[in-house]
Sequence to fold (287 residues):
Amino acid sequence: MNTTCFDVSIAGHIAHIVLNRPEKRNSMIPAFWDELPQVISALEQDDSVRVIVLSSTGPHFTAGIDTAVFAGGSEATDDPRELEHQRRRHGARFYDNVLRMQRTFTCLEECRVPVLAAIQGGAIGGGVDLITACDMRYMSKDGFLTIFEVNIGMTADVGTFPRITKLIPEGIARELAYTGRRMDADEAKSIGLVNAVFDTHEALLEGVMGIAREITKKAPIAVYGSKRLINYSRDHSTADSLDYISIWNASMLNHGEIQEAMKANGERREGDFASLPPKKLKMSETV
Fold:
């Protein structure tokens, strides 16, 4: 898979996506926003993939959004009338661009398999939007995050607030948003934003890959259902969630998978589970 911003590999049912621009602190250039959904879509077509690990290179996980993302979009002209029209439609163009960027991170949340983030150094600005869209987050000791946008006169707008306020106490989220301060790895773990902290980048990757391998040993359809139902329950009332779970299991509960899981556990072997079918592409993705 040829991309500008990522290296992608698959081994042992684990897809590993690596941000690969360390010399630029893995900033999110324009290509990033198109490539990440394409990578996730391609991985969902591969029925061997049961979990995704997202990691990075260099001193920082990501320095956040490259300002080039907000540049351009208007054709050069000396026509006063056209210049005025471009000025008037600036807001609509900016809105459409932000929606596109939001969808880039939402693809991680909507991905059928779990996405684990391994964070070294800083997850800065847009990096917080990225990691909060993942299922679980892990950090090396030098890791930190910062909702940096307020430091440059902006409001974070591509996913941080709707997600982080469901992951940590609201007062802490507000403090991070209003001050732009750094939250280090130990503090992030203490409030439950990250699952574990590792001493080094190498230990981080080893630990996260170990957790990913544990997930690959479970029935993919059961893991998919768990992710879908956790996301639904987070966003709906208890009554609605209980009803949805009942409907889900009425159509998706598979006695063959249950029997195989129990038999494999009893025989101390890995289960022979059915893979998820390749995800059908939307019409908009096929044209």
